Amino acid sequence: MSVFEQETGQFRFHRGPVFAQLVLADEVNRATPKAQSALLEAMEEHQVTADGQTYPLSEPFFVIATQNPLYQVGTFPLPESQLDRFLMRVGLGYPEAALERQLLLGRDRRDLVATLEPAVTVQQLLRLQGEVPRVHASDALLDYVQAIARYTRQAADFEAGLSPRAVIALLRAAQAWALMQGHAGVLPEDVQAVLPAVAGHRLAPRDDSRFRGAADVGRHVLEAVPVP
Predict the structure, then answer these.
(1) What is the CATH number for 49?
(2) Residue 192 is assigned to a structural domain of this protein
């Protein structure tokens, strides 16, 4: 926001927490819809506009958010346009007994942040990001991705099918997965590995009782669409 400074008689722009390479929006669905929608420009355009002035964000730029179940008091459903801009949604669930014991016996998680070591440099991450779109996707693979999208748009199971943005996200995630697995090109197995996380939060079932979460939605789509 811009704050008026009496000493200079002028407004000075103060950068908020979104001006970072990694933004963690904790319990994002406890924010009001207006506050949630404010993230859209940052997530899509990697910029912030205030008082007619545009400020670019750092590269790389990530938004990671946590959300509470909608049945909890004080939550708001995320608008579809915002959900579509999150590449993936991953369910954490409860920790296994052995991991929970480590939490009980270990140091406070917040204390451990100070001892974290970087896994890659910014330059290495940007280089990897640049390699993802160059991972080869054959025409048959693209046919498979489009067949998945077409099924979600035509089937009576969902309120709405995958958007063009979601289809691009599915392909990019599959390319990234293939790169991580050391594949020369994208395989159908790479698409299948990322589909539940990429499509689960974008597909709203007409009958919630048929599906138990994103994994079940993804499994249903994969079973319905044959591999070419």
Answers:
(1) 3.40.50.300
(2) yes
Helix (H, G, I), strand (E, B) or coil at 107: coil
pLDDT tens, 73-127?
Answer: 777 777 788 888 899 998 888 889 998 888 888 777 778 888 888 899 999 999 9
Range of the domain at 72: 1-86
Which 3 state secondary structure label does DSSP give 51?
coil
Q: What average pLDDT does this structure show over 194-200? A: 93
DSSP category for residue 194: H
Question: Does 214 share its domain with 135?
Answer: yes
Number of domains the chain contains: 2
State the DSSP H helix or E strand holding residue 121, giving kind and residue range, or none if neither. Answer: none
Per-residue pLDDT, averaged over 156-181, amounts to 94
Q: Are 60 and 122 in contact (CB under 8 A)?
A: yes
Rounded Cα gap, residues 116 and 36, in angstroms: 30
- Give CA angle at 190 (188, 192), nearest 5°: 70
Please state whether 9 falls in left (phi above 0), alpha (psi between -120 and 50) or beta.
left
Same domain, 57 and 144: no
C-alpha span between 35 and 26 (Å, rounded): 13
How far apart, in whole angstroms, are the C-alpha atoms of residue 105 and residue 99? 10
Q: Answer for the pair 88, 65: CB distance below 8 angstroms, yes or no.
A: no
